[in-house]
Amino acid sequence: MNTTRGPDHDDDDGLRLRPFAEDELTVLDRIRAEPGASGSFQWFGWTDPEAWRRQWAEDRLLGRDQGKLLVVRGAERMGLVSWRRIDINPLTHSFCWNIGIVLLPEARGRGVGARAQRMLAQYLFAHSPVTRVEADTEAENTAERRALEKAGFTQEGVLRSIVFRDGRWRDAVLYSILRHEIEDSEKES
Ligand SMILES: CC(C)(COP(=O)(O)OP(=O)(O)OC[C@H]1O[C@@H](n2cnc3c(N)ncnc32)[C@H](O)[C@@H]1OP(=O)(O)O)[C@@H](O)C(=O)NCCC(=O)NCCS
Prior knowledge:
7 strands; 189 residues; alpha+beta; single chain; 6 helices; disordered N terminus; Aminopeptidase; binds coenzyme A
């Protein structure tokens, strides 16, 4: 695997992942405050508007166990990708990452979701010794399921009644991509 690939990796058309600047926290404000901006599958009601700024003050959204990067193409701020640590076995200190994504409405449907999530998986494999990156999404979120499949993730199973959103419990689907799968596909390309 080419370990120089990272959030500063510039794809052919300029799609990049990079850390937020303080004046770009407005992207997060918009996602938190407008139901349409987060997308119906990511709208869980209004939450503490200062939470992201407290996190920013603590670690610039790049903590040890979780992080967020901005998705940009040129000057266009398209949304965010995120990751959080999932402990597998405390006896062996083993863990993996669970990733997420929210693109702003105007950035959706342009093939960015698949590429940004693959770039994030490449980044996490390059900069941490995990062997597994996972993602879950509501079973009815066809766009995210398809984006994950296009990014090289494999469906593992259905998590029944795992998400409470908009008045009822819903099923989710768990996906993963393994380190060797990314490495093998990079060797082929
Ligand atoms: C889900 C999301 C990341 C997908 O990224 P995207 O860039 O919009 O998706 P893409 O353009 O890469 O399209 C992915 C695939 O889904 C399909 N698709 C896109 N929108 C769709 C929709 N509303 N319904 C069904 N399929 C859809 C596309 O046709 C494409 O499939 P194809 O290549 O076979 O034609 C993005 O739409 C988003 O941020 N949505 C709101 C937040 C969200 O739901 N995040 C995931 C939470 S787990």
